[in-house]
Amino acid sequence: MAGVEEELERRSKFLSSLIQKKKAVEQQQQQEVLNVRVRASDMPLALQKRAFQCARNHLDSMPNKRLDSKRLALALKKEFDSAYGPAWHCIVGTSFGSYVTHSLGGFLYFSIDKVYILLFKTAVEPLQR
Fold first, then answer.
1. Per the CATH hierarchy, to which homologous superfamily does domain 38-128 belong?
2. What is the pLDDT of residues 83-110, one digit of tens each?
C-alpha cells in the first residue's frame, strides 16, 4: 500500500512540474509578443499581464508613436487604482533612478520597447486625529 501512495505522490509532483513549466513557457511567449522584459517583480502573474497589456495598448495608441511618459504613467495608475484599490504609483521614462517602499505583492519594474516602467503600491493608512 505504501508503494502505491509513493507512486501517486511521485506522479502528482511530476504533473505539477509540467503545469508550472507550461505556464512559464506561455508567459515567456506573451512577453515576447508584447516585447516586454521583466526587470524585477513582486507581483502576481495576473497583475503583471494586466500591466503589460495596458502599457502596450497605451503605447500603441499614442499619436505618431511618440512617448508621452506622463500620459502612460497616469493611465497605468488609474487602471490599477480602479481595479486593485488606491495608492498605486507609476514612473515611466527612458532613464531614471528610484528607491521605493512598496506593499507586499505590489511591485513591478519592466521595460517595453525602450521604455522603462516602475509600478508599485503603497499602504494607505487613515489619518490619526
1. Protein Inhibitor Of Neuronal Nitric Oxide Synthase; (3.30.740.10)
2. 999 999 999 999 999 999 999 999 999 9
